[in-house]
Description:
The complex is a heterodimer of chains A (288) and B (226).
Chain A: H1 15-37, H2 43-64, H3 72-99, H4 104-124, H5 130-138, H6 146-165, H7 167-175, H8 177-184, H9 188-209, H10 211-228, H11 232-257, H12 261-287
Chain B: E1 8-17, E2 20-30, E3 35-39, H1 46-53, E4 61-66, E5 73-76, H2 90-95, H3 110-122, H4 138-151, E6 156-159, H5 168-183, E7 188-193, H6 196-202, E8 205-210, E9 213-217
Parallel strand pairs in B: 3-7, 3-8, 5-6, 6-7
Antiparallel strand pairs in B: 1-2, 1-4, 8-9
Helix pairs in contact in B: 3-4, 4-5
Amino acid sequence: MVSFFDLFSPSFLLFPALLGSAILAFVCPLVGAHLMLRRRIFLGLTLPQIAACGVAFTFWLHHAAGLSHGTGGERLLAVAGSLVFTLVGMGLLAYLDRYATGSPEGRLAAAYALASALTLLFVVFNPAGELEILNLLKGEVIALSKEELKLLAVVYGAVYLGLVLFRREFLLNSFDRDLSFLLTGGSAQWSFWLYVLCGFAIAIGVIMAGPLLVFGFMVLPPLVARALAHGMTAFFVFSSLLGLAMALGGFYFSVRLDLPLGPTDVALGCVLIFATYVTQWFMRKIRA
Amino acid sequence: MAKLAPLVALRGANLGYEDAVVLQDVNLELRPGELIAIAGPNGSGKTTLFRTILGFLPVLSGTLTRACALNEVGYVPQSAALDSTFPITAREVVGMGGYGRLKPYQAFPIAEKERLENVLTQVGLSKLAGHLFFSMSGGQRQRILIARALMVGPKILILDEPLAGCDPESQKAISELLVNLSEREGKAVFFSSHDLRMVRSVSKHVLRVDGGRVTWEEGVLADHPW
């Protein structure tokens, strides 16, 4: 039987998957924390679904072109589809936020519904891609190859570096756009770069681990960190560390109990939220 | 004594938005050491005037000249306009005022940390620096935002309803602070309020805004109650 510490042995069969999961879990919460602060957390739900739609579209395109299923080029095409759909979708939503009237939440909900529907329709037209999409939706980070792990490490490393180096600019831009305009000469550029980083993280994350796991890592750790943190640095650090804990714990239970990784991680994250808020409630009662 | 050159001047300016003029024929000069209050009912155009001076809105017609850069203007928004989602401390809020002087990847220098402590002391809240900003009272939050504006190192301070939602003690502390900043430190201070009695007690120079016009109130002399 696999013990918790066996997971960390490089000779462990699923070690690359564990590393991939840990990278995702460390960076995604930082992206989600920024979206949460901007009250755009549902972008974290909608964009992964749009990315999944991009993947389904490229699988369908591959099938329609008469190419055989399971080739290396298909995977590369899927990465491109995920990226293009995410960035175009994000640009379109940002444009509508700026120039259209109506509720931004309503637009995000409509975009989510449309992306989900289109994903299923593309799968219907391409039965060969059904298994790939199903794996994507389940969050099969277990199947991560070494090349994919390298790509994930490079992209997420760059996103993390960008979020850390420009943390002050992004924070100021999210907290008070007027002051950001006065001090940095333009607030739109920082919003743009933040969304570009988020877009890359989501697009690559979805192709590697699926929308459920990416959304779970983006939302759940910052929700717990928000309740525990005293200060913005603590909020960002807690978010990443809680994401990491969620990934390691989820991986262990997934291997030990033979459960799919994505849902196990998300369920564990929800348990963390529940435990945090219940503990806080008891602490308040005790103090009162 | 000769008057100092104005830091901001509006001449014959129409202000507002693309499809609606909110204020007409505005003539106003703001000089170092002046404390000017603008009073008027909610929705009368006080914020439009501020947002134009700050460069957020263009002048529809007439002229606006500034003798200082925008990053030399300290702006104090209403604290209610900020999002309480952020678990941010008072010290972190004040520190934002120094961001304009730092390169993106640069660590917060010691000189900035000292400056931060000085402005916190100036607003009388250095002991509360580690507290969460949104757990503070309305008056304390307003003083923290003034400290953030001072952290910028401004020549002009523009404050949108700084006394709104404050208890009498905080109103007194903020009023004293504004007078000190203009009289002792020579900063141009321009603030708004919908409470005419309040602004008359703080400033000698009162502008009234109503019906799309900005007019000087004659013969007002500040009668500081403290």
